[in-house]
Structure formats: structure tokens, C-alpha cells
Write a structure and sequence with these properties.
six-stranded mixed beta sheet; alpha/beta; 256 residues; 39% helix; globular; Uracil-DNA Glycosylase, subunit E; binds uracil; 12 helices
């Protein structure tokens, strides 16, 4: 079994799109596999992108919440930004963290994946998505022909672990937002994938429901944004992995 097949098997979706009549897959990204994936757009969603080829549509949100005065990142380069994040005490999440988790990967990546916030393992190791959910995220990246650190950057909506892995509060997300904003400015990705609702709401503002928003193309400050399920959710709800696969294919088709 090829590495790609085993990754897709790990996602639990290979049987959905494998075409027995077609030749064996080549090494590297397999766009045809995405094209074969069955895609059922949801009935109602905030923004439609239903013409081919897919292109960013009018922005859902033209502004994001104004950053609180306590966090200032203007003009910071990567090293200063990471130092600022590691030293940050702007919200209560700093009080119980082991360390802040700025993000990991290629600082000039085309792809940016944004999660919710570090969990226990990420807090201990200082790197996002290194636990079970991270393993699934790595498999999702591999199924796209991507790998952690190679043309991919991984960040979170909040950089410090919410105690007990609770969902970050709106004020914690808002306080941390300038860090993510500056990361996006520095990376200048060609596509952002929001993993789960908190990430989607952080990136797009307002109320987002993943089931309604997936399959639609959003835009944040000129960068296309696609929404999908969080890998931790997919571990609990493996029946939705096929939808996540469709979303990743949609994201790849939406890269401009
Ligand atoms: N879940 C997230 O949203 N981010 C991580 O870094 C780990 C788990």
C-alpha cells in the first residue's frame, strides 16, 4: 500500500473515492483523487462559490475585531513576534500555561491551517497539533501531498492552552488575535484552512456553523479561507472524515 493510500486509510475515507479502474496513484499530490471525491454542497450557507473554476467570492467579513490595546505587533518580524508571543501576559491563559505555542512550519507557506488552541501535549512541547488530533492533521496534510513544515504553516487562534482544554473565551481570542493577524501578514498564504468553529469565527468574525459554512469560499483580507471540521472532532465523529476530505479538495481547488 502506498504512503498516500495508508494516509487516506488513516483518515478513514479511502474507499469513498478509490477508482479501481484507474491506474495506480503516482507519487506526490493527486489532484484527480480530489476531483473524484463526491461533493455535496450544503443547502444553505452564507456565501456560495458554485461556479468553476472556484474563485474567492465577496468577503463575508471586511473587518475583524479591533485588537485590544495591550497587544501590539505592528511591524514585527518573525523572531520578534515569536518572542512577544512567548512573553505574552495579556490574558488569563498565560497564568496556567507551561509555555506559549506560537506556531510551526514554513514561514513562506502557501497553506495556513488554523486550529483552536494548544492542548496538554502542545503546551508541554511548544508545538501545535502534536497529540492525537495532530496525527490526524498530519494524515490530512499527507493526503494532499503536503507535510508539516513543507509549504504549510500551522497556528492556533490562541497561543496558550485553555485550562482543561476548554474552548477559548471570546475575550481570550480577541486579545490573542493580533498575533494570528501578524502571522498571516508575514506568511501571506494562498489559502487558509480554518479547523473548527472557534478558528473559523476568529478568522471570519461573526457566528459560523461548520456544517453550513463548509463547501463555501470566504475571504479574509484578500486571502481565501475554507472551513472544515477540527481533527479532534473528526476523531470523535469519524463518519465526517469524508466531508473533511471534500473540504481539503475544495481548498486545493480554491488556491489562487
Ligand atoms: N487542537 C488545536 O486546536 N490546536 C492544537 O494545537 C492542538 C489541538
Amino acid at each position: 500500500m502506498s504512503r498516500r493510500d495508508s494516509m487516506l486509510r488513516e483518515m478513514g475515507i479511502a474507499p469513498l473515492w478509490r477508482d479501481r479502474a484507474s491506474p495506480p496513484p503516482q507519487a506526490g499530490p493527486d489532484i484527480r483523487a480530489c476531483e473524484q471525491a463526491p461533493v455535496e454542497p450544503p443547502a444553505a450557507a452564507p456565501v456560495r462559490a458554485d461556479s468553476a473554476p472556484l474563485r474567492p467570492v465577496a468577503p463575508v467579513v471586511t473587518t475583524v475585531a479591533a485588537p485590544p490595546a495591550t497587544v501590539s505587533v505592528e511591524g514585527l518580524g518573525w523572531d520578534e513576534l515569536e518572542e512577544r508571543i512567548r512573553a505574552c501576559q495579556a490574558c488569563r491563559l498565560s497564568e496556567r500555561r507551561t509555555q506559549a505555542v506560537p506556531g510551526v512550519g514554513d514561514r513562506e507557506a502557501d497553506w495556513l491551517f488554523v486550529g483552536e488552541g494548544p492542548g496538554a501535549e502542545e503546551d508541554a512541547r511548544g508545538e501545535p497539533f502534536v497529540g492525537q488530533a495532530g496525527k490526524l492533521l498530519d494524515a490530512m496534510l499527507a493526503s494532499l501531498g503536503l507535510a508539516r513544515g513543507q509549504n504549510v504553516y500551522i497556528a492556533n487562534a490562541v497561543k496558550c492552552r485553555p485550562p482543561g482544554n476548554r474552548t477559548p473565551e471570546a475575550d481570550e481570542i480577541a486579545t490573542c488575535h493580533p498575533y494570528l493577524d501578524r502571522q498571516i501578514e508575514l506568511i501571506r498564504p494562498r489559502i487558509i484552512v480554518a479547523l473548527g468553529r472557534p478558528a473559523a469565527q476568529t478568522l471570519l468574525g461573526g457566528e459560523i456553523k461548520i456544517a453550513a459554512a463548509r463547501g463555501h469560499l470566504f475571504e479574509r483580507k484578500g486571502v481565501p479561507v475554507v472551513v472544515t471540521y477540527h481533527p479532534a472532532y473528526l476523531l470523535r465523529n469519524p463518519q465526517d472524515k469524508a466531508k473533511a476530505w471534500e473540504d481539503l479538495c475544495f481548498a486545493r481547488a480554491s488556491v489562487v
